[in-house]
């Protein structure tokens, strides 16, 4: 089946979930990824400038305070990535941001908000970022999962404005397996970009390394082809054909965190083993 980024950028845990759109497998694709993917200027842009990001807090059930938290994190993402693009001499545009209150609510060009279990979705067609605000989605006010999800979805926006997603969506594949293999590189790169942002603001978040370790080792949980689980089953390592092994998801998230910039996030030249 043909899978488009329009449906595959929604997230349930650390931004690692897929909704599938039906379609038709395309003709053969060359083994080497296009230049826009493998040699993008993004990889030459260096580390992200250190910026301040102070998370706000809320009590379980306080949806107004939770929404304020999400808007603060979104502001941090916009500030950090805008400064990075300016430093690198690259053109930047911020995504729009909308809060969704219910599964099934309309989300513009990408149809309706999927679920259950999905926390956020980036829609490349209108460059809108959608975040679900309900009791289940924001059950744990202390978890890093919320900033992790938002940073991952913002990573898809970075891929959109640097031409990576538009080129990917035009590629043709000889089989679903070939398509899945390339899509995993897209998703794992978004994990790395999420880590790069978190690493660049880490000193101001007031978080501990134990919390980041918990994010990478427990919040990822298990993966299915449709929904990425949360922290209930940290030992369940089910590989998603579109998002990869949890061990690789953790690797790229941590790689971005340590590198503090997209210069370490070129998944398109990485080995097949590291993007499985």
Automatic annotation (TrEMBL):
Signal peptide (UniProt feature, chain positions): 1-27
Subcellular location: Membrane
Ranges of biased composition (kind: Gly residues): 223-232
Compositional bias (Polar residues): 239-248
Protein name: Metalloprotease
Family matches, as PANTHER family: INNER MEMBRANE PROTEIN, PUTATIVE MEMBRANE PROTEIN YPFJ
Domain of life assignment: Bacteria
Assigned keywords, A-Z: Membrane, Signal, Transmembrane, Transmembrane helix
GO CC aspect terms: membrane
Region of interest (Disordered), residue spans: 220-248
InterPro entries registered for this protein in UniProt: Uncharacterised_pept_Zn_put
Chief location category: membrane
Lineage: Bacteria, Bacillati, Actinomycetota, Actinomycetes, Streptosporangiales
